[in-house]
Amino acid sequence: MSPITRFGISMDSKLLNRFDKLISEQGYSNRSEAFRDLVRDRLVKEEWESEELETVGTITIIYDHHKRELAETIIDHQHHRYDSIISTLHVHLDVHNCLEVLAVKGKAKDIKKIADELISTKGVKHGKLVMTSTGENL
Amino acid sequence: MSPITRFGISMDSKLLNRFDKLISEQGYSNRSEAFRDLVRDRLVKEEWESEELETVGTITIIYDHHKRELAETIIDHQHHRYDSIISTLHVHLDVHNCLEVLAVKGKAKDIKKIADELISTKGVKHGKLVMTSTGENL
Amino acid sequence: MSPITRFGISMDSKLLNRFDKLISEQGYSNRSEAFRDLVRDRLVKEEWESEELETVGTITIIYDHHKRELAETIIDHQHHRYDSIISTLHVHLDVHNCLEVLAVKGKAKDIKKIADELISTKGVKHGKLVMTSTGENL
Amino acid sequence: MSPITRFGISMDSKLLNRFDKLISEQGYSNRSEAFRDLVRDRLVKEEWESEELETVGTITIIYDHHKRELAETIIDHQHHRYDSIISTLHVHLDVHNCLEVLAVKGKAKDIKKIADELISTKGVKHGKLVMTSTGENL
Questions:
Q1: ipTM of the predicted structure?
Q2: How much of chain A is helix, strand and coil, in % rounded to 5?
């Protein structure tokens, strides 16, 4: 736990008003926490730009498991990367559609590669990578 | 939250000594909690014997996803029961072996059926059903 | 399964070259699949703009579970919405940091609200909502 | 993939009939698969008796997250063992009750210890350890 620093920021009041309105809608109870979140989000982006850093992400995909051999292909992709993929949450949305969320740890560039492979697989209807962080330096 | 009743139990001291030793090894800090757990475990068994009651279970299976169409079969079994299976946690143990844990809610007999189907599938190396409870009456 | 339509698109060749380069890096084996993904992504955005539609999302958060009562607060938030939250995958990243991914189903506006509440909670270091889809109309 | 050996077994026909009836109810399509499952189950038990072997288990617990600081205690127990716990699936059963399933990898004795700690925690209503396997030698 590092010491807390207090400091001032000057900002166009119109800009600040819009920001205050937004964060109040989002449920923030104070402005400092909202600014800390902005800073942390920027630092996470930085982590991901330096592709060699160890980081954490989640990959969300939606697919129809009835598509020819798709479940096999997806599970195969994942096992070749099993040292990076921590685990996968699978939800059966209906008789056809699956939601899968993978928790992945590794180098930013490797996580991006896994996400690209999965999302570009034919039959995967929708997919998104969340670039987050190990939390260590935030 | 119902009121707490205190009551006495008489027991062969040798039997009690063995029980006290066991629960201390298991980390219980007091004997009443250990007895409450015995009672709750017995009640859960009861819930599962009356097969029509709504209850909760987890099914753990280990399989080799390279076995011909096994991943497809397993995912298929699950989707036909998608209203009972809440979600599935998948862990890639190595290049071949998968651990899957399914959280299932439904009638005791339906959960047993899903477990039987999955565990008896050719290529599933090991499988166990945990019969637990919705927690409502414990 | 609806019938397949083939149709032509005209596009500035420089623009197309850049797109082809990008999708080949992402691992797409053909251009049509990449275009289908663009269209599906646009339709998912639409689903989320109409806030009353039933849809699916995942919320990823990173937090330090040692922060005063944070784990309690987070689990509390989730239980008040337990009819929307299908399940949660929790990964212990290190002694302090947790990764949590929630699979959520419900009206777009309700899912956004859950995400806002969790991400704005003091002590949550980083959080992102993935707006995806039930997959039904994609 | 090792070669397949065929061999004969002699058995009391009454015993065999009961077994055949049981496995047909469980959905086995052939008797050999049912016998293979018996053998594998016995080998898994062996793995767990030799407490130093690396193995895999799942721990299922049901608890009321409103109980004073229980969620904190449970998450704390887990983080002190974060190198063994691969990940946790959490399901909000109702406003009070949680189902948690932990996927755990490590020495048999360490996994048993984690299970004992969690299940004996005051407020945990029900808990069971499934002793399974890495699948490597099955």
A1: 0.83
A2: 40, 30, 35
